């Protein structure tokens, strides 16, 4: 391929397309609709879908609506999914069963880095529309060349005790692999761009004139759930400044969690006496070993 992309050494898009084509028969064995391309329509999954269309393999699209994605991304996803349908592809948008607000009230603890109960419900939940299909994700294990590490082609996803240490499909972790099999539910996952660097995503999008969500032009580098505990404090603050209505919703939910905890006679943590205090604590950039967080994890495991 004669790109001016000197960065594209080894033509990773050709490699990805070959891989997608190679596994197509397997995908068809699992589901006659072919691959299930899981897409939020963020930059990585947008590229992933484009690779599938270029590969000419059977596939369909699935989007898990989280209810806390940025409104601009939601509109972009809806528009793109309609275009995929117009082009003859199946494209499903599936709504959560319980909102993040309902989940927080049920747990009475906000989602934490160490307890991402919301991922399992909002993003990881098996849905009827996916059938038995071989899933494909746009996860990548490094954001930049600087973070590159050795890689393997095949890995089995191992589940930790009590559901911890699970690699969620939307995670970008160093140990993501191209082909993954999840023991817990036998799901198979193909991650064709797992080794791509950020530059590849942007070079590819420019080369193919692939429209990306407008929020990237505002300086956002990663798009996902507003307020996600996995993101850094500065990024979350920026999100709450950009979408203050979501901050209000979180604060209201923290308030209701405090009321519910009092009603049930549960501990009211020192740093969580008011909704604002708890929210500020939650937003602080704590290490994962933080003892307060560890205490909440322990509490959660006891209920
Ligand atoms: S990405 Fe973050 S906020 Fe969204 S569901 Fe997962 S842990 Fe929760």
Helix and strand string, N-terminal first? HHEHEHEHHEEEEHHHHH
> What's the CATH architecture name of the largest domain?
3-Layer(aba) Sandwich
CATH class of the largest domain: Alpha Beta
Number of helices: 11
CATH T-level topology of the largest domain: Rossmann fold
Sum up the overall morphology in one term: globular
* Small molecules held by this entry: iron/sulfur cluster
What do we call the CATH homologous superfamily of the largest domain?
HUPs
Assembly category: single chain
Low-pLDDT windows of residues: 146-167
Number of domains: 2
Structural class: alpha/beta
Distance between the termini: 56 Å
Summarize the main sheet. Answer: 7 strands, mixed
- What is the share of helical residues? 40-55%
**Radius of gyration from the alpha-carbon trace, in angstroms:** 20 Å
Outline of the structure:
By secondary structure, this protein is an alpha/beta fold. The chain has helices at residues 12-22, 24-30, 43-55, 71-86, 100-107, 117-122, 198-207, 233-242, 244-263, 275-283, 291-302, and strands spanning 35-38, 59-65, 91-95, 135-136, 154-157, 179-182, 188-190. The protein has two domains: 12-207, Rossmann fold; 232-286, no CATH class.
Overview of this protein structure:
This protein is of the alpha/beta class. The chain has two domains: 12-207, HUPs (Rossmann fold, 3-Layer(aba) Sandwich); 232-286, no CATH class. 40% of the residues lie in helices and 10% in strands. It has helices at residues 12-22, 24-30, 43-55, 71-86, 100-107, 117-122, 198-207, 233-242, 244-263, 275-283, 291-302, and strands at residues 35-38, 59-65, 91-95, 135-136, 154-157, 179-182, 188-190. The protein has a seven-stranded mixed β-sheet with strand order 3-2-1-4-7-6-5. α1 (12-22) crosses α3, α8 crosses α9 (244-263) and α9 packs across α10 (275-283). The longest helix has 20 residues, at 244-263. The N and C termini lie far apart (56 Å). The model is unreliable at 146-167 (pLDDT under 50). Residues 66, 111, 116, 118-119, 122-123, 170, 224-225, 228, 230 line the site of iron/sulfur cluster.
């Amino acid at each position: 391929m004669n790109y001016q992309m000197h960065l594209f050494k080894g033509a990773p898009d050709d490699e990805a397309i070959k891989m997608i084509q190679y596994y197509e028969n397997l995908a068809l064995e699992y589901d006659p609709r072919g691959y299930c391309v899981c897409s939020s329509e963020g930059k990585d999954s947008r590229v992933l879908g484009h690779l599938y269309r270029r590969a000419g393999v059977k596939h369909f699209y699935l989007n898990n609506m989280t209810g806390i994605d940025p409104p601009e991304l939601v509109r972009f996803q809806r528009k793109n999914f309609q275009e995929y349908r117009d082009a003859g592809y199946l494209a499903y948008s599936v709504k959560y069963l319980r909102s993040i607000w309902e989940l927080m009230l049920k747990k009475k603890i906000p989602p934490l880095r160490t307890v991402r109960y919301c991922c399992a419900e909002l993003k990881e939940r098996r849905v009827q529309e996916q059938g038995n299909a071989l899933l494909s994700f746009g996860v990548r294990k490094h954001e930049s060349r600087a973070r590159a590490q050795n890689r393997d082609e095949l890995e089995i996803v191992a589940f930790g005790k009590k559901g911890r240490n699970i690699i969620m499909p939307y995670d970008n972790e160093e140990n993501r692999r191209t082909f993954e099999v999840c023991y817990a539910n036998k799901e198979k996952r193909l991650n064709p761009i797992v080794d791509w660097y950020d530059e590849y995503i942007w070079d590819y999008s420019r080369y193919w004139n692939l429209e990306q969500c407008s929020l990237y032009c505002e300086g956002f580098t990663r798009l996902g759930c507003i307020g996600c505990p996995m993101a850094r404090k500065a990024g979350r603050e920026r999100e709450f400044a950009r979408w203050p209505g979501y901050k209000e919703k979180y604060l209201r939910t923290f308030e209701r969690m405090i009321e519910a905890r009092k009603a049930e006679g549960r501990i009211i943590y020192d740093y969580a006496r008011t909704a604002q205090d708890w929210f500020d604590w939650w937003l602080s950039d704590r290490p994962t070993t933080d003892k307060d967080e560890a205490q909440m994890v322990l509490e959660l495991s006891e209920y």
